[in-house]
Amino acid sequence: MALSLSAGQLWNLAEQPFDPARLPELAATAEAQTLSGIDAVPLAAALARAMSWIQAHLHTALAAAVHLEDGEDPRESASRIEEIAIHLHEAATTTDARCSDATELVRRLPQTLKQLKLGAISPAQARLIATHTRPLGNDEAVTAVDAKMAGRAPAQSRTATDRMIRRQIVAVDPEGAEARHRTRKKDRDVWVYDREDGMSQLGAYLPAEQATRIYAAVDARARQAVPAGDERTLAQRRADALLELTTTGSRAVVATEIRVTVPLDVLAGRTDAPGELDGHGAITPGLARELAHAPEATWRRIVTDPVTAEVVSVGRTRYRPPAAMARLVRLNDPECTFATCSVPAARCELDHLREWSRGGETSVANLGPACAGHHHLRHEAGWRVRREGDGRVAWTSPSGRTYRKAQAA
After folding, report:
1. In this structure, are strands 275-277 and 402-404 parallel, antiparallel, or unpaired?
2. Interatomic CA distance for residues 108 and 249, integer angstroms
3. Residues 376-388: pLDDT tens digits?
């Protein structure tokens, strides 16, 4: 009979390549249900590693199941997908997409599949990589992307992996990315779904820069002067602002800004590297140039501090950073600094890493964007933060484990 594992043993299992020989012990520990509170955290982490290992083998089995030998009737594959869907309790169309991703992982993404088998990445990360590489016809490009993603994804959140793989696809296939963008634009649409309790859900499928601009206008309107006694949350004010801007014919001026980062050689047309749309991620070089050269665009050079002479510290003369410093902090850290968070810095509070009450300065080095949730986590749940030598912010949990956002690609 397998013995249950202690919290310390579970941490070792959760932080090492998954060893299937430990499955009986892990299963016994889970079945015993003796761990609770902070001691259950490593159990959840170890089980997540085991799930990745199982998913890797599920992908291998799915790819084998739908593979057709020469001369086999293509309808046989469809028949197998229908039968698999019954056992996965999902629609055949969902299983078909799952099998396509599995085939991509097995045939063209062996390094990504290996990381999944080791428990180093999640099933969601693996499927993201597979889904995005499928349109690539160049196997050499896929091999290069596979190697890069396998090396970086283990340190990333799902959102960070999504952004990185989209950037990689644009980088290795800029012409294909431009063509796919033109095709996708034809599918733009707006829809509404009925929901319970007299509510509905409104959605839109738009080019990224248009969606970003609309959201910026709604957000800016919601943040304008709030009357005394107004108890609406920011989310509720955004919803009301959307209604006002689209139905009342309001001509109120709403100042908005969308930020696009474009390398100079891309602007000049010398290279075709992807641009970066703040809050969205990679965009095609053609779209980046189009936005940069728009009549209303304002260019801002971003180089190192000695060249720009940007303000980097005001010591302890003031708590709130001046606008130039706040802008520089958000350029250095474009998202909340928590390891798995992707909330854009523009929607974050600027947190003093060494607290102001403990002598911390208001400086670029001592400030970092933190979304409202992680700001409260840091100050109310016992997490500690510090800026490290490579510029990243390290977050240490009450368990003593330290987590960092993956370095930029």
Report:
1. unpaired
2. 53
3. 899 888 899 999 8
CA distances from 341 to 143, 238, 389 (A): 29, 22, 21
Task: With cut-offs at 50, 70 and 90, classify the pLDDT of residue 149.
Answer: very high
Domain extents for the chain? 7-172, 189-247, 307-404
Residue 188 has a CB neighbour count (10 Å cut-off) of: 12
The tokens for 390 are: 């490579």
**Structure token digits, residue 235:** 């989310």
Question: Token match 């330290």: residue?
Answer: 402
In angstroms, the Cα distances linking 207 to 100, 117, 178, 201, 235 are: 26, 36, 12, 20, 23
Task: Report how far residue 64's alpha carbon sits from residue 313's, in angstroms, rounded to the nearest whole number.
Answer: 59
User: Would you say 233 and 261 are in contact if contact means Cβ atoms under 8 Å apart?
Assistant: no
Residue 275 pairs with which residues in a beta bridge? 283
Query: Do the Cβ atoms of 367 and 319 come closer than 8 Å?
Result: no
Q: Whole-structure pTM over 0.90, yes or no?
A: no
